[in-house]
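The following record pairs a protein chain with its ligand, magnesium ion.
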Amino acid sequence: MLNLETLISEADLQKRIKELGTEITKDYEGKEIVVLCVLKGGVMFMTDLAKHIGVPMKMEFMVVSSYGDEYRSSGVVKILKDLDEPIEGKHILIVEDIIDSGRTLQYLSNILSERKPASIKICTLLDKKEERVSDVEVSYIGFPIGNEFVIGYGLDYKQYYRNLPYIAVNKE
Ligand code: 5GP
Ligand code: MG
Ligand code: MG
């Protein structure tokens, strides 16, 4: 078991997610979007964010596994579940839990670009900017955080703790 300390409270998460939803709604006014959740980590964030999106939207899910240990990705990404529909001509908003090196999202947006969507933007709840090695563009960021391993609200440690309604760090 981990010794948890709250980094971002449930109230702060929900407040910021509402703001992001409002911003997204403004930016996509008059358009329809496909909100693409990257499972499993993005699941909590995407469902809460979607409640605040006021333009017509579809939900899509992808499962990708990025090889690595339990703390970070290697950037070698495998698609375990692909989109259900073609995305040609559609506006895609990728929703992720966290961007660290940026390799996972770089890989994903490259693959999706080949399918000729009208646009692709990225929305991440958490951003570990210091760790970035890829120059992938991120349009919406919930919270910038430092280089520490976080869990909760979709983010796991050995597949546990995804159900926490807040973001926590391990204090040993
Ligand atoms: P990247 O490809 O940007 O380096 O890694 C992104 C992925 O690494 C995330 O989707 C997540 O699965 C994992 N990851 C990176 N940092 C953390 C962290 O602090 N906590 C958890 N639980 N996963 C992380
Ligand atoms: Mg993720
Ligand atoms: Mg993980």
